[in-house]
């Protein structure tokens, strides 16, 4: 994901709530607070795309469409 897409996601209160849940769960597992920065980084890396696919399908399709438009490097036609 691009940084602009991540910023847009972080404006959504539902995403902030999910990150806070992740912070609490992971902190409970290790016995100390992992910190909001780590929780945000982990959630974005592990769960953002799946969350967006389920909760924001239009934005997800837009994101996936841009990612799929890149042409793979391959053999040139003669």
Helix content: over 70%
C-alpha Rg, in Å? 16 Å
Please count the beta strands (DSSP E, at least 2 residues each). Answer: 0
Low-confidence segments:
none
The 3D shape can be described as elongated
Roughly how many Å apart are the termini?
A: 35 Å
The helix/strand series, from N terminus to C terminus, equals HHHHH
SS class: mainly alpha
Q: How is the main sheet built?
A: none
Count of helical stretches: 5
Q: Provide the number of structural domains.
A: 1
* Share of β-strand residues: under 5%
Q: Would you tell me the overall average pLDDT?
A: 84
Sequence-ordered SSE layout with sheet pairings:
Elements: H1 3-10, H2 13-30, H3 36-46, H4 48-55, H5 57-68
Please give a structural write-up.
By secondary structure, this protein is mostly helical. It has one domain (3-67). It has helices at residues 3-10, 13-30, 36-46, 48-55, 57-68. The protein starts with a helix and ends in a 10-residue tail after the last helix. The relative contact order is 0.12.
In short:
This protein is an all-alpha fold and 78 residues long. 73% of the residues lie in helices and 0% in strands.
